[in-house]
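Write out this protein's structure.
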Amino acid sequence: MDGKGRISIPADFRRVLESGDADWSSDQPSRMVINYRDELAGGFEINTYDGQAENEALVAALPKGSLSRKMAQRDFITKTKDLSLDDTGRIVMPQFLRDRLGLAEGMTILALGLGETFQMWNPDTYEAVHGAALDDFIEEQGEDFNSEMLLEEGRKILEARMRRDARE
């Protein structure tokens, strides 16, 4: 991040933003929605415009006046900030978000691709928040554990859903 709060967004993430914005065209800047809900303490989740529209539709489907809707509105609508990339693929991070993340001029920011979203973290904060939890999880799995087992778990869940959907 430079002294003006500009952060370069990796090219592969920019392609995700473009493909997830039904209104994007090559003569317009890519747009994104930064989510800074509390559970991301020390980090941000970046969503495409289409992804944010889907989140807002899911929030709207919750019962009006319910606590679940109020919390979802706070976390997925209120705690967001729309940003556009400049012609060099950078965003200008607002000061309040820089402060929230503990970012300083010259700092390298950790960018994590998560499929249809990505996250940005202060590397020290990410390690403090997630490092120990991930280490504990791996230790709990036993010495035969490897991460491919997680994909197998996901495959079983998807197969069970498909069987359930076929019955309905």
